[in-house]
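S.,

Sequence below, as promised.
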Amino acid sequence: MALAALAALAPAVAHADVRAQETQVFTGSAHENSPREAKRDAEQAARRSALISGYLNEQCVLLYAESYRLAPGYYAANAAIRCTR
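The prediction came back faster than expected:
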């Protein structure tokens, strides 16, 4: 009887539906004639890798996209995205 009274006083514990999320980072690189094109192509390469791994574009965010000049009129770029599902 005393045990039942203690159980009634104990706060109820809510059980939340907690799912483990999977997060992965994808990178891409490109070489183009302008820094803008190089960044765009590098990001697209990273997004293609994510799509191959089963992620949707809506599940991914851009971490960074950087470009640098290799020679006059020739640029390279790197980009990274993080995807979570």
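The longest helix spans residues 35-52.

Coffee later?
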